[in-house]
Amino acid sequence: MNPISNEMIAELEALLGGNKVLKGDAIGADFAHDELPGGKFCAPALVCEAASTEDVAAVLTICNREAVPVTVRGAGTGLVGGSVPVCGGVVLSLAKMNAILELDSEKKTARVQPGVLLETLKAEAAAKGLYYPPDPGEKTATIGGNAATNAGGPSAVKYGVTRDYVRGATVVLPTGEVLQLGGATGKDNSGYRLLPLVLGSEGTLGVITELTLRLVEKPKTDVSLILPFLDGESCVNAALRILQEGMEPVALEYMDTDLVEFAGKATGNPVFPVEMDGERVGASLLLTLEGKDDELDSKMEAVAELAEELECLDILVVDTPTLKRDVWGAHDAFHTAVEGAAKSADELNMAVPAAELAGYVEYLKEIGEEKGIGVYAYGHVGDGGLHAYFCSDQSRDAFEPVMAELAELAYAKCRAVGGAVSSEHGIGYAKKAFLRASAGEAGYALMGRIKRAFDPKGILNPGKVV
Amino acid sequence: MNPISNEMIAELEALLGGNKVLKGDAIGADFAHDELPGGKFCAPALVCEAASTEDVAAVLTICNREAVPVTVRGAGTGLVGGSVPVCGGVVLSLAKMNAILELDSEKKTARVQPGVLLETLKAEAAAKGLYYPPDPGEKTATIGGNAATNAGGPSAVKYGVTRDYVRGATVVLPTGEVLQLGGATGKDNSGYRLLPLVLGSEGTLGVITELTLRLVEKPKTDVSLILPFLDGESCVNAALRILQEGMEPVALEYMDTDLVEFAGKATGNPVFPVEMDGERVGASLLLTLEGKDDELDSKMEAVAELAEELECLDILVVDTPTLKRDVWGAHDAFHTAVEGAAKSADELNMAVPAAELAGYVEYLKEIGEEKGIGVYAYGHVGDGGLHAYFCSDQSRDAFEPVMAELAELAYAKCRAVGGAVSSEHGIGYAKKAFLRASAGEAGYALMGRIKRAFDPKGILNPGKVV
Q1: What is the pLDDT of residues A246-294, one digit of tens each?
Q2: What is the 3-state secondary structure (H, E, C) of A289-314?
Q3: Rounded Cα distance, B150 and B283, in Å
Q4: Chain center to CA of A408
Q5: C-alpha angle with apex A267: A262 to A271, nearest 5 degrees?
Q6: Is 80 exceeded by the pLDDT of residue B322?
Q7: Are strands B166-172 and B178-182 parallel, antiparallel or unpaired?
Q8: Sign of the C-alpha dihedral, residues B424, B430, B435, B437?
C-alpha cells in the first residue's frame, strides 16, 4: 500500500470540491473508530465525502491506480471495527448521500442512497402506510451500513434480515467499475448471484451507492408478552414450542436474568422480572405477536395454554404504547446499559442452534466466573443469534488478555455445538482469527480468492474479514 | 484440457469399483444431452457414478490433477444444456446418491443426497404432514439439479425459490476440498456468503453432495380460479391488483390464449377458455389461493369483487381434486404439448417486470409473425418469469438461424424493459452470449474471476455460464 501524494490530494480536491476532502486537523476523531468497545483508534490520512455514484467511482479509480487503501464509512455504529481505517489511507464517507430517491407505495419499494438513516427510512415508509422490517436496534445506523453488514435484529425470526429486503443495488467495484445488481423482477437466474455476496461483505468487495428495498404492509395490531421461567432450558423449550405451533412471533427474545438484573440496576429502570414468589427467575422470554384482532386473541390464548403446560411462572402482557416503549426501550438499551456500567466490557456475538442456547449461555457464565468476569446474555432464540456481554472491574489493560482467552473458548465451543462465529455484527478486524477457524482453511482460502476477484489490488477496507 | 489416460481410468475403477465407471458403448445416449430442444449431443469419454461425498472428492481430485473436464449430472431434465459435456471428459453422475438421510418433523428439515427426485422428496415430506414448496413443474428432476439451477416455478410468488429453502449444503470444490456451507442456525454473518453463490451456479463452481432443506407446514385448503380477460393488459392489471390487495396467491399464472388454444389442440384436452360469448379471450389468469376455510372464502369474495371491477369475463372455480388435476396437469404440460406438436420448436425463458409482461408477449408475437413463427407464452406474473415457445413447421436446420435472430431480438428487448436473461432455466451453454450482454462487460468479467477463484484449472462444467 502506498502513502497519499500531494498530487493525489489535489486531484481529489479538483474532483469533489475542496470542502469535501478533509485532511489533518479537519478530520474529526470520530473517523478513527466505531463502537467496538476498547477498539483501535486509527485516523485516516484523508476523508473524502461522496455526493454521488460518480464521486465514488472516481475516488476508487484514483485510489486503485495509486494503490491507496479506502475504507467506506456510514454512521460508524458498527461493533467489530468494520469501518475503522486500520491501514490508514482514505476514509470514503457516504453519510451525505442520504436522499430517499423514491418511495413507491404501489410497488412497495424504496430507492435510497446509502447514507439514509434507518430511523428516517422507517419513518418515511410509515408515513405511506408501509413498513421496513429489519431493525438491529441501532436506529441511527445508515441503511448502507445495514446492507454492508446484513443487519438482523429481533424481528428477523419472522421477517428475515436486510439481505431479504434488498431487491437491487448499485455497486462500485474497487476498480471504479459500476455494476447494477438485482433489479426489477423477483426471479433472476442469470449467471452468478453477486448481490447476496456483496451484501454482508462489510465494505471489502464493493461500495454500495444505491439500494432498492422491498417494503411490506404495516403490521396489524401487536402485543408483547414477557414469560419468566425458573431456568434457561424451560425458557428455550417454550420458545421452540411457540415456533413449532406456528404462532409466527415477530420477536422471540431469550433474556438471561443476570442480564436483565444488571441492566435494570444500571439504568435504575428494572422492567423485567428477577424474582417470582420468592424464587429467582432463570430466564425470560420476550415475544411479540401480531395479527388481526381475533387472530391475535387466539394466538394469545394458545400461548397461555402452552405457558401453563410448560411451567412458565407468569405471563406479563405488554399492550399499551407506554408499556411497549418501556419494555422494548429497556431491551434495545441492554448494550449501552451493560457496557456503561462496567469498567471494562466486551460483547461477543455468535449464532448457536436454538436447542443449544441455554447450555451455551451457562458455559459462558462458567468460564467467565473462573476468571472473575460477569457474563450477561440475551439472544434471538428463533434464529440462534446471541449477544453476550463480558464485564469486569479490571482496567482495560488487565481485562484484554483475559477477554482474549475467553473469546477463544467461547468461539471454540460455538463451533463445537454447530454455531456460527457471527450472527449479526460481522467480522471486521476483531473476529478474523475466529472466522478462519470456523470457515476452515479451504473455505477461508476461497474467501481470500473471492476477495481478489473483486479487488485485485486489495485496496478496499484492507485488514477486514479475510 | 487433457484427454483421459488409461492410467486415470484404472485409478478411477480402483477407487469407485469397475461397475461404477462406464466407458465406450456402456455409456448410454442419455448422457450426451439434456432436454434443450435441438440441443447438442456430446458423449462423454467416461461416466463415473458416485455413491458418496468421498467418491465425488476423489474423482474431482484426480480430474483436477489431470486437467480433465468434469460435468455433473442429476436426472438431465435441464433446458439450457447445463449437464451436457460439451468439452467431453468425465460425466459425474449423482443419480445414485438418492437417499433421504433424515426427515425431522420437529425441526422441519430434510437432509438429502442430491440424486433424490423432487417427487420423492415431496411425497416423503407429505407423509409427515410437511411440504417442500419449490416446484418447477418437472417432478422427475433431482433435488441436486434444482439446487444447482435454483429452480422456481409457479408457487415462487408466495413461497420463493429453491435457494430460499436450502439451509446448508456440503459442497466439493473442483480441487477436491469439501466445504460445509450454511448450517444449523438461521442467522449467519460469518464472512462471505458462499452458499447462495453456489446455488444456481449450474455445476460450474462446486458439486453439491448433500443438502439440508427447510420444510414448511402443509398448506391449508386451497382453490384455483381461472379468470379470462379480453386482452393481456387487463389480465396483468388484475394480477397486480391481486398482489397489492395482499391475497398472497400461491400461484398467479398469466396464460396467453394462443398458447392454451395450441396446447389444448395438441393434447385434445382443451381446459382453458378460448372464447366467451362469441368474443376471443386475450389472456387468462390461473391463480391459487390458500387459507383456512373462512379465510379462503373471504379471499375468494375479494377476488370476485375485483374481477367485476376489472372487467374479467368470468370466474371459473377449480375446486374438486379432479378439476385441479386436469387444470394443473394441462398447465404443467404446456412445455411437452407445444413442443411435441411443432415440427421445430424452441423455448425462451426470461424475467420481465410484471407491468411490462403483456406488451412484451405482444412484441414476441409480432417478431415471430414477421418470420412465420408462432409464439405461445405463459408466465409467473408475480415475479416476472416468462416462458415463450417459438414453433415452426420448418425443418430444424431451416428454423435454427431464424430462431437465433429472434432470440437476439427477444433478449435485447428484455434488457430494454429492465428484465433478466433467465428467470429459471439458467444459462448453460445455450445462453452465454445473452448473459454477457445482460451482465455487462464488467459484471461478466467479474463472474469469470469468481469462476477462477473456485476452479483455477477450469475443469468443472467447462463451456457453461461464463
Answers
A1: 888 999 999 999 999 999 999 998 999 999 999 999 999 999 999 887 8
A2: EECCHHHHHHHHHHHHHHHHHCCCCC
A3: 28
A4: 21
A5: 75
A6: yes
A7: antiparallel
A8: negative
**A174: closest CA of chain B, how far (Å):** 12
Give chain A positions within 8 Å (CB) of B454. Answer: 446, 449
| Amino acid at site B120 | T
Closest C-alpha among B150, B182, B113, B240 to residue B427: B150
Asked whether the beta carbons of A255 and A284 are under 8 A apart, the reply is yes
- CA B303 to centroid of chain Cα atoms: 29
ipTM of the complex: 0.92
Sort out which chain A residues have CB atoms less than 8 A from B384's CB and list them. Answer: 184-187
CB contact under 8 A, B192 and A450: yes
Q: What b/e string do you get for B64-88 counting C-beta neighbours within 10 Å, with b at 16 or more?
A: bebebbbbbbbbbbbbbbbbbbbbb
Cell numbers 436473461 correspond to what residue?
B421
Residue A347: closest CA among A378, A369, A370, A371: A378
The one-letter amino acid code at A351 reads A
Measured between CA atoms, the residue of chain B closest to residue A164 is B164
Note whether A443 contacts B: Cβ–Cβ < 8 A.
yes
When scoring B161, B188, B241 by the number of chain A Cβ atoms within 10 A, the one with the most, hence best to mutate, is: B188
- From chain A residues 167-186, the ones with a CB under 8 A of any chain B CB are 173, 177-181, 183-186
Q: Is the Cβ pair B420, A150 closer than 8 Å?
A: no
Q: List the one residue out of B48, B26, B166 whose CA is nearest residue B96.
A: B48
The pTM score is 0.93
* Shortest distance, CA A296 to any CA of chain B (angstroms): 15
- Identity of the residue numbered B81: G
**Which positions 86-125 of B are in contact with A (Cβ < 8 Å)?**
106
Question: Residue A218: pLDDT above 80?
Answer: no
Q: How do A385-392 and B21-23 pair as beta strands?
A: unpaired
pLDDT in tens, B55-102: 999 999 999 999 999 999 999 999 888 999 999 999 999 999 999 999
Grid coordinates representing B29? 445416449
